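Page 37, continued from 36.
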C-alpha cells in the first residue's frame, strides 16, 4: 500500500483549494498563512506534482490539484460524518429554522438529507421569511434564523455563515447568443433581470463607478429565486452569488459570462439565535450548517 502524505498537508491543501485563498484557509484551520503555504509546498514535493497556480486574484488549482481537492473534500466529509455519527443518538427533538426563501430553496433544502442521515432523531421545521428586521424576527417562533444583510440584531447571538460574492449569470443559450459580452460596460446592451427596487444591478454598477440609469430591466421579480429561474429560462442576465447560484452553475444550467464580481460587508448570511438557547441538537445543526456553508462558498 502506498504511504500517504501527512494528514496536515492534505488538510491544508484541501482547505486552500476549497476556500480559494491563503487567508481563508488559515482562518478555517486556525493556523498562519505561512503554515498553509509550507504544508502545500511539502505536499507538492511529496507528490512531485504541481497542485496550485497563483494568480492576481488569489489561488487557482491546476487540473491535477482540482481532482485531488474534490476527492479530499469528499473524504474529509465522510470522516466527519463518521465521527458525528458516534454521538448522534444523544441528539433528538425538533429544530425550527426561519430562513430566507432563496437560501432555503436553492441551498438548504437540497442538503437537509445529509443532516438527517447524521442525526436521524432530529426533526427539522423550515419557515420562509424574507424580513431581516429585528422586530420581525422576534415575532417568528424559531430556534434559529438564517438572515441576509448587516449584523444589526441587538440582544442576539450572531454567527457569520459566509460573505457573499455577487456576479452576473445567464443561461448557456443566452451566453452563446450575445456577442460582445466581455465586460461590465457591455451589460448595458442586454436585458437585465432585477428586483422591483432595481438595487441588485444598481449596487453592481456603482461598485465599478457606473450609472445604472441606462440599463434595460424588462423583468423584475421580488424573490431572488425567481430571478435565477428567469435567467435559466433565458429571459436575460441576472445577478447570482456563490451560494444560491452554485447548484445551477455546477449543473451547467447557468454560466458566468465574465469574472467581474462585487463583495460588500452588507452582503452576507448570518446564523442568529437567542442568547442561551443553544442545546445539543441546536449546536449540532449550527456546526453542521457552518461546515456545509464553508464547502459551498468557494466561487464556482
Amino acid at each position: 500500500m502506498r504511504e500517504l502524505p501527512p494528514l496536515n498537508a492534505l488538510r491544508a491543501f484541501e482547505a486552500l483549494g476549497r476556500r480559494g485563498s491563503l487567508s481563508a484557509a488559515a482562518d478555517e484551520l486556525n493556523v498562519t498563512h505561512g503554515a498553509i503555504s509550507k504544508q502545500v509546498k511539502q505536499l507538492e514535493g511529496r507528490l512531485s506534482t504541481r497542485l496550485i497556480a497563483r494568480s492576481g486574484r488569489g489561488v487557482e488549482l491546476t487540473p491535477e490539484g482540482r481532482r485531488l481537492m474534490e476527492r479530499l473534500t469528499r473524504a474529509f466529509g465522510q470522516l466527519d460524518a463518521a465521527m458525528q455519527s458516534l454521538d448522534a443518538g444523544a441528539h433528538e427533538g425538533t429544530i425550527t429554522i426561519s430562513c430566507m426563501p432563496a437560501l432555503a430553496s436553492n441551498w438548504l433544502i437540497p442538503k437537509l438529507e445529509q443532516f438527517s442521515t447524521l442525526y436521524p432523531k432530529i426533526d427539522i421545521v423550515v419557515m420562509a421569511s424574507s424580513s431581516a428586521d429585528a422586530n420581525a424576527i422576534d415575532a417568528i417562533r424559531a430556534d434559529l434564523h438564517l438572515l441576509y444583510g448587516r449584523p444589526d440584531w441587538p440582544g442576539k447571538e450572531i454567527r457569520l455563515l459566509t460573505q457573499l460574492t455577487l456576479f452576473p449569470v445567464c443561461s448557456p443559450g443566452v451566453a452563446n447568443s450575445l456577442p460582445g459580452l466581455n465586460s461590465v460596460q457591455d451589460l448595458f446592451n442586454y436585458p437585465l433581470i432585477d428586483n422591483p427596487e432595481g438595487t441588485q444591478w444598481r449596487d453592481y454598477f456603482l461598485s465599478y463607478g457606473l450609472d445604472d440609469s441606462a440599463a434595460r430591466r424588462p423583468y423584475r421579480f421580488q424573490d431572488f429565486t425567481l430571478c435565477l429561474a428567469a435567467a435559466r429560462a433565458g429571459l436575460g442576465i441576472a445577478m447570482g452569488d456563490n451560494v444560491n447560484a452554485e447548484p445551477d452553475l455546477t449543473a451547467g444550467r447557468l454560466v458566468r459570462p465574465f469574472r467581474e464580481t462585487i463583495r460588500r460587508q452588507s452582503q452576507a448570511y448570518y446564523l442568529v439565535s437567542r442568547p442561551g438557547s443553544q442545546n445539543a441538537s441546536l449546536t449540532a445543526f449550527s456546526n453542521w450548517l457552518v461546515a456545509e456553508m464553508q464547502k459551498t462558498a468557494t466561487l464556482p
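DSSP finds eleven helices and eleven strands in the chain. Flag for discussion at group meeting. Residues 63-85 form the longest helix (23 residues).
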